[in-house]
């Protein structure tokens, strides 16, 4: 075609009949040839292929200019060659209105220029379709966070699509990793799993297998991936190559983990609620039955004055027990629904601790444990110790812990109060209730602050309570910017300690 573009051949064509031989070549050429006058910009001569390509007769073409074949007027000059563009791919319009894509090569001579034109409509349609498919595939991989990869033992290289590089290196590029490099990307805890899975696949000549494991990107991100592998072996069973897909399933895995945790929590809370309901109904029924029984006796039988006094006392004790249970329930539901109000005031703690004594004695009496020694502990070197706190809630925490201490201690001493520690220029007050009771085994320490959790030793009869006391103490401490913790030696006793991160003043 290049030799055709030399001007002499066409000069002969224009010259006329004496060059019939060339004219035949011109007419019979399998591609369109068009000669255009440089001054008028009209087609001087066009061949049969040109007429067929554009759907006009050769005579019709002779009356036309390249502009008439253009899809857009301003691009006309480009359609069949311009003074500046020697080769171009352009859209053109046929006589029947159909738009085609043509590749135009132009040669400029003195008086005219020659364009050789090929119909590349189909080629370009396929090329565009291919590009579009590639783009769609790339997009699908990006959206689905998956890519393809291939590994050949003879080159010891993993190659992979853009998305694989994004998964492994957090940015799209071309991936090329050796076997060892691939292992080093794998999370240390999952490496031996990956190696043994691959070795097992080769040993058993597995043709396809799937794995889930974690990788760590150069930026330190831990990702969960799902890898599907296919393997090809030669007739001797030697691995030829492996290929497959790799998907980043970090998000899905996280959702799955969260779901599993949520299900466990739901099951646990369901179990706790069932236990609670069983305990709760027992806890309500016992004092109610007792009270009704005593009321019955008081009204229907002859009783002495002493018996009456004793029974009224028992009714009072049981109603207290019931009231405490109901109060616990109300408090717990208030805390859970964020409706527990905290009223801060400056509480003088020395006076507060001392004032608890009378209610403690009453509690001891009710529990029938008068022999327990109850010792308030305050810092006598300080005149006044103030903490900005809710007095009612502070007394609720103490009261819960002291009644537990009485409940779980048969003999010895219960100390309650506070200690001051000086750290650099700051004072810190730690409150405590410690006993010499049965203690709590270390495997239970983590659980006792959860609602509805109760433990009792098999050899000790079950003591009353709905398992809410410590949970309430914990929530109250947290509401007042504090915390509560426990130290215990089974058989020796327990110490419950708590503190609040609120302002204080010491005189
Ligand atoms: P309740 O006392 O109503 O059972 P709590 O939440 O107050 O519920 O206590 C939960 C569990 O913690 C108790 O069942 C008991 O096993 C343990 N516990 C609490 N205080 C003490 C203590 N001072 N000594 C030994 N065990 C205790």
Description:
The protein is α+β, with helices and mostly antiparallel strands. The chain has four domains: 23-119, PAS domain (Beta-Lactamase, 2-Layer Sandwich); 145-248, 2-Layer Sandwich (Beta-Lactamase); 267-334, Signal transduction histidine kinase, dimerisation/phosphotransfer (DHp) domain (Helix Hairpins), CATH 1.10.287.130; 341-506, 2-Layer Sandwich (Heat Shock Protein 90). Helices cover 44% and strands 26% of the residues. The chain has 16 helices and 19 strands. The strands form four sheets. Strands 8-7-6-11-10-9 form a six-stranded antiparallel beta sheet, sandwiched between helices. A hairpin with a 3-residue loop joins strand 4 and strand 5. Helix 12 (305-336) packs across helix 16 (469-479) and helix 15 runs antiparallel to helix 16. It starts with 6 loop residues before the first helix and ends with a strand. Mean pLDDT is 87; it is low at 457-461. Adenosine-5'-diphosphate (ADP) binds at residues 404-405, 408, 435, 437-440, 448, 453-456, 465-471, 494.
